[in-house]
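Marked as duplicate of an earlier ticket. Keeping the data here for the record.
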Amino acid sequence: MATFLYRLGRFSFRRRKLVAGIWIAILAAFGVGALTLSGQLTNSISIPGTESQQAIDHLSERFPQAAAGGGTARVVMAAPEGETVADPANRAAIEQVVNRLRDAPEVANVADPFQAKAISPDGSVALAQVSYQVMGFELSEADREALLSAAEPGRAAGLQVEFGGDAVQGMPETQPTEVIGVVVAAVVLLITFGSLIAAGLPLLTALIGVGVGMAGIMVTSGFAELNSNTPILALMIGLAVGIDYALFIVSRYRHELSVGRDPEQAAGRAAGTAGSAVVFAGLTVIVALAGLVVVGIPFLGEMGIAAAATVAIAVLIALTLLPAVLGFAGKRILGGRIPGLRNREDSGKPTLGQRWATLVARRRVPVLLAALAGLVVVAIPATDMQLGLPNDSNAAPEDTRHQAYELVSESFGEGANGPLTVVIDTGDAATAQQAALQAAQRINGLDDVANVAPPTVNPQGNTALLTVIPQSGPSSQATEDLVADIRDQAGPLRSATGADLSVTGQTAMNIDVSEKLADALLPYLALIVGLAFILLMLVFRSIIVPLKATIGFLGSVAATFGAVVAVFQWGWLTDLFGVESTGPIMSMLPILLIGVLFGLAMDYQVFLVTRMREEHVHGAAPDQAMITGFRHGSRVVVAAALIMISVFAGFVLSDESLIQSIGFALAFGVAVDAFVIRMTIVPALMSLLGRGAWWIPRWLNRLLPNVDVEGEKLTAALDGDTDPERRDLQPAPG
């Protein structure tokens, strides 16, 4: 592979105008496609095969009038203090609001609060339920604007009118605050290279790669249904790895120039050596993200594939466009230095990384114990992790969705924010009503039930609906238990009446999705850990190094889960991170975090430990091999980690709770894995284990293919030929 990449790097360098032109044409073509072919993204989350989804599909055939699968909105109208909604003026204003809601686009029906008796016990609040013919994500901004503008008559009369439900929620979008991460990344690159040109190239190529990837996702959305968080995740991952991969290759290119190589040779060697590590690192991220498909959750698989494709584009750009751009820059990449920024490594003095590695080797046991103790303490909150999907209570306090949630909770009970829909299905129209009444009686006797509305029956008389209002909120454990208890009534009801019972509605669907994601977590983690062990065994030809690398990965995941729970569930340091509401951790976050963090963790493991292995193979003593390898790799790994942390941290400033939590989790996870696991625990263990760290059975060593990630064979072959005109690839001496 190193040989092929060496030739590819030289070709791209020589034919730089052609290569750059091809990538510009690709970017332009995808950009035009994104403008003309993009479709509607979705913020709905469903899993085929769950009971709630099957019930929705069944209702769309048997009871389409109920619009059970469509979007919903809750319109909460509160009278001024000292008045009631039944006062003539207030009632007239509410009726005007209801009439405007009925005339809004895509509305299937509106439940008048006076007819539905949806009035709070003290008479101060009225609740109107709006059902849409289409799903919430299919509503346009004009549709949402028509919904929100229906409040005008009520507000003009002095009523407080707030809106909740999925029909109100728009699509998450990238925000200017997320550019902060790119700015910080630019500063890190400037400090690392001390050169404007060298710092600018990784940013340029990464932005082109992200542009191609994002445009490709938008084109795909015109032909397939994609979750609205898909492009944001792809942007987050693609930008971080795009900058990092370019950083590794540019750093190697500058090194080759500094030892006297001509620019074309330097570009070829950089692509063949650092480029090989980039390919391996990129493959680990791609496999981890694409592996989300095996979880069996469509929207999560789509997000993983889209992010994996963006990473693949970043790798291709690093191996082709970057050498071409280096061809335009030539030796100028060594110039343009910023005054005051000097590379200490060039001065011959001990670097900070070298001094740290030496300290770790001398105090390896205390350092190791302190690092492990810190991980355990940070991971403790993870034992209390609760998974769920967001609802209106997770919106910002000033958001109308949060205001509506609070009004409903205070006036009707928190459970009114998450009603359950119970479907009673029988083939005999004569028994549907009786079966529904019997089911209502059974459900009324369960714990945590606030109210069961009278059944509604479809025109054919073979399907009935019951609306059940829990006492607890939609994200509570009590509501989850209630859904299970209602479903447990299906058997007895079938025996007594022959009717089938199922539970659906947004709350039940969220519970089913969360349960499915929780069940998939351990199998996916096992898959990732097994994959990590095999890949690292191929690279390092050792049993112990992959073992401690995968255990270290588990440690960083546990610590990250603990930090996420402490901030987003317990509410610690919310002011510092701008978190405006807390609650259960997003169900999809743990699996996404495991997939992404695995790939990034393996990046740092490869870039840092391969040089240690090289020193060991050349006969250096264990501690010296660790220190030398750390000195060469730590500077680039620190820069890469800081870049990823800054890019991910920029997303913590998002208004969307999912994007906030993903950005925080990835930023914290990268920080822990890079600085605690890879740069503290790994060198301490390498020093402690000595030569035993590289032990591998002889029979296994013979079976494993030599992937030559560091391009040692390539370097040997090139250095064996003294003619610069013929250094394409000669056989290694001997």
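See parent ticket for discussion. The first helix runs from residue 2 to 14.
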